[in-house]
Task: structure prediction
Amino acid sequence: MTTGMLDAREFGAKGDGQADDTGAIQRALDAAGEAKGAVIVPPGTYCCSTLHLHSHTELRGLATYSYRDPGGSILRLADEAAKCLLDITGAIGCGVNGLCLEGEGHGTGIHGILLDKPD
Result:
């Protein structure tokens, strides 16, 4: 893997649709923040709570999800108390690409991607 490209599984993410992958993916995002790099999320279903992106980083997946044939890289919100799945507040120049964000059944007022600015 090239410098700056970090694999979420190398930080302990399982992507099995059961394990809580929040800590592993956040550790990868934190390392990417230091390197101004990207985190790759391989195909699988990653259950997590809110993840915080850093400036000049990217979170990438494999975009193969469709309603007929689910697959690819899926981030599933597994925390009913969470305000969002991806928090980009204060993350200047960050990117999200190729991910399916799932949050079905958690009610209203929950965001897939949140930029929470006071103004």
Remarks:
- The two ends are 40 Å apart (CA to CA).
- DSSP finds one helix and eleven strands in the chain.
- The mean pLDDT is 91.
